[in-house]
Amino acid sequence: MALKPKNDLSREEKLAKRDAAEQDALLREVDDAVRQGDTEEFMSKYGKPLLAVLVLGLVAFGGYLFWDSRQEAAMERDGEALVGALDQVEAGNLQSGYDQLEALAAADGAAAPAAAAMMRAGIAAEQGRDEEAASLFATVAANGDAPAALRDLAKVREVAIRYDSMASDEIIAALKPLAVPGSAYFASAGELVAHAYLDQDNRAEAGALFAQIAKDESAPEGLRSRARQMAGVLGVDAIVDVDALLQEQGVTRQVGEGDAAGAAQ
């Protein structure tokens, strides 16, 4: 026997369901209107400041990219100037190299202008223009923007050139901060300071400093050898390993009779 389709919802239930759906749609429309109103109010209140911040950010970023590209271009240009001047110096064209570095040495900046000024000072010294060279070295030494290593080297070179015209206490005051073990220019600065001590007849300080230089394995061998000799003259033993020193000097140590006898025993 076939069953009649059952009517699941009564008329009242259908009306209630329809009213609920209409109410839900109305609530969504109201919610959307409120959200749209909040957005419009927010944009009306803060839209222009936000746009200004966005524009300023984009301008700043673009400015940074422009500055960075300019910096890279400037470094390349400075590097080319230094290399070109070095090529001239190596070819024996000292004056040409000196002239090529004039603009770079006078430019604003730190490393490249300081290096250019140092090169010009070295060329001037090589050409016998000592006062000009010393003045250029002094300029680099006083340049707070230049790398510390270049400033220290410039100070040592300036004092070395002006040594004879400076008082011994001026030399010591100028270079004593660099004349300490561990300093990059300890040996060079220390040798000048030690000679200044000798000018003051301060043999003890001079001898001790010469001995320190002689024992500094990072110092050039020629400078260590001079310091070792000066320390010996002043009565300070600056030899750490006699056999090693003799080997460096290419001297074969002779075994004396006393040594042979001691070895035989």
Short account of what is shown:
Helix content is 74%, strand content 0%. The N terminus and C terminus are likely disordered.
Q: How many beta-strand runs? A: 0
What is the C-alpha radius of gyration, as a whole number of Å? Answer: 41 Å
Low-confidence stretches: 1-6, 66-70, 257-265
Summarize model confidence as the mean pLDDT.
Answer: 75
Please give the count of helices: 12
What portion of residues is helical? over 70%
Q: Provide the number of structural domains.
A: 2
**N-C termini distance:** 136 Å
Helix/strand structural class: mainly alpha
Largest sheet: none
Proportion of strand residues = under 5%
- Secondary-structure element order, as H and E? HHHHHHHHHHHH
How would you describe the shape? elongated
Note down, in words, how this protein is organized.
With 265 residues, this protein is mainly α. It has two domains: 48-165, no CATH class; 167-252. The protein contains twelve helices and no strands. The chain has helices at 11-90, 94-100, 102-105, 111-126, 130-141, 148-162, 168-175, 186-199, 203-214, 221-233, 242-248, 257-264. Helix 5 (130-141) runs antiparallel to helix 6. It is elongated, with a radius of gyration of 41 Å. The model is unreliable at 1-6, 66-70 and 257-265 (pLDDT under 50).
Task: List its salient traits.
disordered N terminus; disordered C terminus; mainly alpha; 265 residues; 2 domains
What order do the helices and strands come in, and which of them pair?
Layout: H1 11-90, H2 94-100, H3 102-105, H4 111-126, H5 130-141, H6 148-162, H7 168-175, H8 186-199, H9 203-214, H10 221-233, H11 242-248, H12 257-264
Helix pairs in contact: 1-2, 1-4, 2-4, 4-5, 5-6, 7-8, 8-9, 9-10
